[in-house]
Amino acid sequence: MAYQEVTTTSYGKRVGNSFKGIGGGILLFVVATILLWWNEGRAVKTDKMLNEAEKVCVDMENPNKADPALDGELVCATALATTEDSLIDSRFGFGATAISLQRMVEYYQWVEHAESKTEDKLGGKEVTTTTYTYTKEWVPYPVQSSEFKDPEYQNKNMVLTTVDSEEQWAENVSFGAYKLNESLIRGISSREPVQLAIDESILKSLNDGISRVHRKDSLGYVHQSGNVLYIGRVPSSPEVGDVRVTWEKVVPAKVTIISQVDGNSFKPFKAKNGKTFQTLVMGKKDAAEIFESEHSANKTLMWILRILGTILAIAGLKGIFGFLETLLKVVPFLANILGWGVGVVCTVVGIVWSLIVIAIAWLFYRPVLGIALLVLAGALIWFFAFKGKDKIVKKAEA
């Protein structure tokens, strides 16, 4: 059954909090402005860097044979990434010859979920009802149930044992006659399950430790199957406290890289504007495909950050002017009308401000688009000044 907690905030405290929110709103608005400005510069610089890299990039036709003439060149090459390094999981006493060995841990725990609803009362008070529900889930860390709100679920969590997640990477990964640097190595994603071969003495020691600490009977608590080590009574029927450990490895695979040759290895390419670039993709790809994908990713990130910056600007303005709505909370329906109006104004001003910041930033790089954005911002200002106010008046009259 759900557990509810009801809290009441007085009108005076709400007004005080709204005035305190002005500082946070100003900070948020400044952060949004900086983010929008920085993002435009980042996008243009990245675009120029990719264009420069694409012009100088050459194909390495045979990575299996070192070519001194390519030293210092930005190359696109496809070869098998492989290693002879042995990676050992020291806690469980087994390993694999692989590019990476990864141990992932999950705990079966009670998890608290909270959902809040607020209601304005006549006189300015605010009543918040928070509903807490609890579910059993696999999570990557033990959950402190002592902090749960519902007393019935407090201290219900426990774990049979704790195991740290771990990730190891080979230091020596060959790419034909060359070696990959650390950044390129970590871009390889050819994952496969690791078939476990944990020594029985280690499993017995782990089982005995659980039985001794938790004063359980001598039943087996440790089960290994495939690439999973399950710590609990019955793997098919998990109980709170059970632990699931999964191993994967990154195996040799054909990859394509774009990077600058540095002796028998590689390093990032540095463009004239200071931006660096190197990449690794799985399988065989040509340079044109990779650069097209990088340009697309740059544009996608640019729009994500533009939208985020605009949302932050609007939120900052609402934080600055939110006190106006709070002052009228003594009469909720009046506050709702004013809040609607403040929300509209903050949204329009936030969008307009974001367009102005973007336009000014782009004027330094691409004047035509910058001027177009300024015209659009001006059109929005005109629309709001001569059209938007009529809607607000009609809303207030209604």
Task: Explain what this protein looks like in three dimensions.
The chain is an alpha+beta fold and 398 residues long. It has 2 domains: 3-53 and 294-397, no CATH class; 58-110 and 136-285, no CATH class. The protein contains 6 helices and 19 strands. The strands form 4 sheets. Strands 1, 6, 7, 8, 11, 12, 13 and 14 form an 8-stranded antiparallel beta sheet that branches. Strands 2, 3, 9, 10, 15, 16 and 19 form a 7-stranded mixed beta sheet that branches. A two-stranded antiparallel ribbon has the order 4-5. A hairpin with a 2-residue loop joins strand 15 (253-262) and strand 16 (265-267). Helix 1 (11-56) runs antiparallel to helix 4 (287-327). The two termini are 42 Å apart.
Percent in helix: 40-55%
Please give the number of β-strands: 19
Class per helix and strand makeup: alpha+beta
N-to-C series of helices and strands: EHEEEEEEEEEHEHEEEEEEEEHHH
- Biggest sheet layout: 8 strands, antiparallel
The Cα radius of gyration reads 30 Å
Count helical runs: 6
| Overall tally of domains | 2
Low-confidence stretches: none
Give the CA-based shape: flat
State mean pLDDT (0 to 100 scale). 87
Content of β-strand: 25-35%
Distance between the termini: 42 Å
Core attributes:
398 residues, alpha+beta, 2 domains, eight-stranded antiparallel beta sheet, seven-stranded mixed beta sheet, 6 helices, 19 strands, 42% helix, flat
